[in-house]
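User: My instructor asked us to take a sequence, write out its structure as tokens, and then describe one feature of it. I'm not sure where to start. Here is the sequence I was given:
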Amino acid sequence: MAEVVRPSTCVVAVDGPSGSGKSTVSRRLATLIDGIYLDTGAMYRAITWAVLESGVDISDTDAVTKVAHETALFVGTDPAAPTFRANEVTVDVAIRGPEVTKAVSAVASIPAVRAQLVAQQKAIIAAAPRIIVEGRDIASVVAPDADLKVYLTASAAARAARRSAEDATDVKATEADLIRRDTIDSTRKADPLKLAAGAIEVDTTGMGIDEVVSTLLDMLNSKVSK
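Assistant: Let's start with the prediction itself. The structure tokens for your sequence are:
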């Protein structure tokens, strides 16, 4: 493991498709530098959960936006236990379920929903001395001036194998769903998933978590020691 340097302030933006290792790596890195961790994808999942609970049609943009604006969202930033609440309901488990996973890309593609959550994300970042932020549009939209911008990627097959190992789902079905979500996220008009200017791409296909964390730690040390 690389030497741990804890800067007085830093923002690390970690983007990439689902299953690339963003969450695990970001949480580990946040713990190492004694910082906080922001999972922006979970924020979109929490809003999606609220939309599904409300019973509105997810294709009804105005109705979804109304639910998003009316949902009281609590965002936990402890890397050891990032907890989320929507309208006072703890949704940590529910937002990882298949119903939310199937619907979240559609909800997250709505510009008004994105604008609301991006504003909240920016406020959290501004108040934090050291923060690791992960998502799809962090380096391009949420924190374009981050000290370190990383784009984690991996083959669809590798990502599917990892995800299936976590939740015991069929690998082929998981791979197909990841590719579906990749397409939606990368082609949406509002804040698409992409390699942002100045971001460093790291292909994690053949890498273990420790190796990825060490690689990012080296990158961060290089940035903050200059």
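For the description part of your assignment, you could build on this observation: The chain has a mean pLDDT of 92. Try explaining in your own words what that tells you about the chain.
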